[in-house]
Amino acid sequence: RNTASSGIIDPVRNPESEFSLNAKRGSRMVMQKRLSEVRKMKAEDTANIQGTAIGNVLGVNHSEAKPQLQSDKDPKNAIKVTREEILASRKSLPAYRVRSQLLQVIRDNQVVVVIGETGSGKTTQLGQFLYEDGFCDDGFMVGCTQPRRVAAMSVAARVAMEMDVQLGDKVGYSIRFEDKTSPATKIKFMTDGILLRETLLDKMLDKYSCIIIDEAHERTLNTDVLLGIFKELLSRRRDLKLIITSATMNANKFSQFFGDAPQFTIPGRTFPVEIIYTRHPVSDYVESAVTQAAKIHLSTPISSGDILIFMTGQEDIEATCSGLREKLLDVYTKKNSHNDNNEPNDIEIIPIYSSLPADVQNKIFMLMNGKRKVVVATNIAETSLTVDGVKYVIDCGYAKLKVYNPQIGLDSLRITPISFASANQRSGRAGRTGPGVAYRLYTEDSAYEDMYLETIPEIQRTNLSNTLLLLKSFGVDDVMKFPFIDPPPRKTIMTSLFELWTIGALDNLGFLTKLGTLMASFPLQPSLSKILLISAQSGCSEEILTIVAMLSVPQVFYRPKERKEESDQARSRFFVPESDHLTLLNVYSQWKANAYSFHWCRRNFLQYKSLQRAHDIRRQLSRVMVKKNIPILSSGSDWDTVRKCICSGYAQQAAKLSGLSKYVHLKTGMELQLHPTSALFGAGDLPPYIVYHELLLTSKEYINVVTSVDPFWLVEYGILFYNVKRRVEETDEFDVDQPSHGIKDKLDLQIDACNTRKKDVLRKLAT
Ligand code: CDP
Ligand code: MG
């Protein structure tokens, strides 16, 4: 297995790897050390965290004797579910049983915190209750936010089904780049990011009578910001109701934040879950999960229950799925049992992660014809999605986390140990319909040593440039005073402001510039909206539009396990050796030249759906461009202009070649590896300077989607880091030579930090 690209750390092959998950205590300690950065960022309130007792038995909610849908009873006839049956299954949910009391509390209070175990019906029922109770009369809507796109889509589909309406009609959803609502929509599910953007356009949120901030315990960045915005908005709109739903953790905090808002707990009965830790540290959690799942499947009757496996992300999920498939096939072939060729026929293995298309994701809710369901998921299945019928949980103990180090201004994705609260949530999934078993692929000792009690809220461990840009355009000038439920570290706010300033989004006094205002109108991270805007000036916005759209979709290259070589060859035919960005542009252009053909995609090992989505996103972005009077121009075959433009947004994410194949980060000196799939490997010698789109920390520091740049461009666009006195041309608002007092006072530290690094970097640039 290619440990690098599959994201799995194989300590045998990677004995040096710092990030090795070789859980000899030592290695975990190394990860621990890295985590200390995150820990330092954690705000003071460890004391507030409720100790989550971890025992061998967990109390878990259960929805009592839920009437089985017809299709449950007779899987062979898994076709029609009658209205009565749907209603019966609704009525069996714990939330339904307290419907009238719940509605009363909502009527009596402006803010209510609703607490209930996962699966009790908060997400699917609340909106319907409100709808039935008249909250959508007089042209009003009920909005329900979800931290995750997948959940927004699938829950909307479920509610539409329960209400017997077409999805997108009375019940709809809206996620970034995809709006499935209509003027008739009454219950709207959306990501928290979408509602945040809506508040920009309509500060009073006039069309809503009630907003449900769902899964608030997840504490995503956008949810936290929304809570702050609502704190003020609620006094301006006395008629607007706010419901915050949360799994059992964190509820007090939400109540207190909204002036001791009442808490309503949905009662639920519990089933015990037995927790089994590994006796020894595991060296490869994918392998262990596969072994454990196979063992369960082969030693228990299928009817005993389904299996839910928690992994960190797409790569290890795919590896687990194919690993399990192979393992079972192997066993069946040896047993000589009847089976079709490449699929074990008594099991349905279903991956679930955010970039999967909706139809594939919905498979987790389908009933299988007498087969056992094995769902391999990211932490999306912790609370957002409830898979019924799970009896066994296998938990790898890790999650992919966005981490920001404000000291050096570095953003990255890291695989980190989960918190106790997460571990308990994960285990709890096993006991919804009966007693269950949770296998934890780590030792009890390491759990105690490595895990936080609770996950650090995203706002305290992420780059805030994007959020601050939004807040500024929302009219919040002094972001330090914004009512955050847990304030982010001051340092992070400073660095993020500084970043916005360096890309010209803020002026010397910290106010939005024209460029910044325009940047905020795109639903993109600041670096990408900057590239788009610059491209209009340098005459290559046609091309950059495509690149930005392609960066906003999941992997376009398709690499089936059994045809790796063939697909790698196909991929390399698209390579533009100086740039992965241009490679993406090339793929799209050729697809376009081939009439956006599906068959052409298949022949070339490209994901048709991803390309289609890029096409759609491109259209939406160009609509924003047209609306804002930003010209869409093509530079034709002049791809150097495109590369220079790319450099303008990524000047802080630059690296210099060191040796034959390694890069060092220009700002931080950190060693970086090109991702093995990069087009830059196609050209022989690697270019001396590059910028990158994304930094991924697994066993190594990988940079993903890379473009070779001219060092003089870096000087031009990264003037503040690389200390060459020249003005950045598009922002007449700020003058690098004379930062005014206001900004200097505010940003002193960062400027100093840059100054101390300047010589260093200049030396690097000079050599
Ligand atoms: O939000 P909460 O965790 O309290 O529960 P929910 O998501 O409203 O789920 C209530 C029930 O609906 C569970 O039994 C889910 O399995 C089911 N459900 C479903 O069958 N299909 C969906 N797309 C979503 C929920
Ligand atoms: Mg829910």
TrEMBL record:
Domain Helicase C-terminal: 281-475
Annotated keywords: ATP-binding, Helicase, Hydrolase, mRNA processing, mRNA splicing, Nucleotide-binding, Nucleus
Top-level class of the enzyme under EC nomenclature: hydrolase
Coiled coil: none
Subcellular location per the Swiss-Prot or TrEMBL entry: Nucleus
Gene Ontology cellular-component annotations: spliceosomal complex
Domain Helicase ATP-binding: 103-267
EC numbers: 3.6.4.13
Catalyzed reactions: ATP + H2O = ADP + phosphate + H(+)
Presence of the UniProt keyword Signal in the record: no
Primary site of residence: nucleus
Keyword Glycoprotein found: no
The organism's place on the tree of life at top rank: Eukaryota
GO biological process: mRNA splicing, via spliceosome; protein-RNA complex organization; ribonucleoprotein complex biogenesis
Family, similarity comment: Belongs to the DEAD box helicase family. DEAH subfamily. PRP16 sub-subfamily.
Protein's UniProt name: Pre-mRNA-splicing factor ATP-dependent RNA helicase PRP16
Naturally occurring in which organism (per UniProt): Lachancea fermentati (Zygosaccharomyces fermentati)
